[in-house]
Amino acid sequence: MKPRARPPRKPPRAFFERSTLAIARDLIGMHLVHDDGTRLRRGRIVETEAYQGPRDLAAHSSRGRTARTEVMFGAPGHAYVYFIYGFWNCLNVVTGAAGVPHAVLLRALEPVAGLGERASGPGLLCRAMGIDRRFNGIDLLGDELWLEAGHGAAPRLGRSARIGVGYAGAWALKRWRFFERGSPYVSGVRPRARSAAGAGRAPLRNNARART
Predict the structure, then answer these.
(1) In degrees rounded to 5, what are phi and psi of residue 27?
(2) Which tens digits make up the pLDDT trace of 136-165?
(3) Which one, out of 62, 63, 112, 190, has a CA that is 20 to 30 A from the CA of 151?
């Protein structure tokens, strides 16, 4: 007899209504899951960045309420997916109260199931997970793309300034990037170091800065 699949342990809606910085920390170690009906992809979140517009000049919502940022002003727990550089999609989790344009960018995943590509960097994450602009506004507690509790020990957290937001002045110095210390899947890790750490041959030394 085939064992019954364990139901996903999705967080309550209230999880997304809290402080954006708390959510960015608590997402580390949780799973992002995409079930398109034919393939299930699953990754463990190891890196995030918090954005707290409209005062935060690094946030898209600092430019006001536009067609692009409308989802950020909506209900928490939904996906804000944007397209950059004519090539990459990036996935954010909308947080806080409706009308407050806060979000958490998912920057990197540790592959768990169904991921044949690297997911270290926000653009690579979306490509590996099969996420594009069609998912903009989707409820992340639904049945196609969702978040759920992870398994095992709590991750050791590190934090740093956010990546690539030097244009934001003093806001660029906010230590609103969170990551799992020692993870070979954080986006700043060089491929050789990632392979060595993943095989248990060498400690991971640099996961403070990264690029998509």
Answers:
(1) -70, -25
(2) 999 999 999 999 999 888 999 999 999 999
(3) 190
Domains of the chain as residue ranges with CATH: 13-182 (3.10.300.10)
Q: Report the distance separating Cα 86 and Cα 77, nearest Å.
A: 26
Residue 24 CA neighbour count, 13 Å, CB half: 25
Nearest residue to 211 (alpha-carbon basis) of 181, 186, 175? 186
Q: What is d(CA 194, CA 97) in angstroms, rounded to the nearest whole number?
A: 38
Adjacent-strand bridge partners of 110:
44
- Express the helix, strand and coil content of the chain in percent, nearest 5 each: 20, 30, 50
Q: pTM, whole model, 2 decimals?
A: 0.87
- Phi then psi for residue 150, to 5 deg, are -85, -170
Measure the CA–CA gap between 72 and 96, rounded to whole angstroms: 10
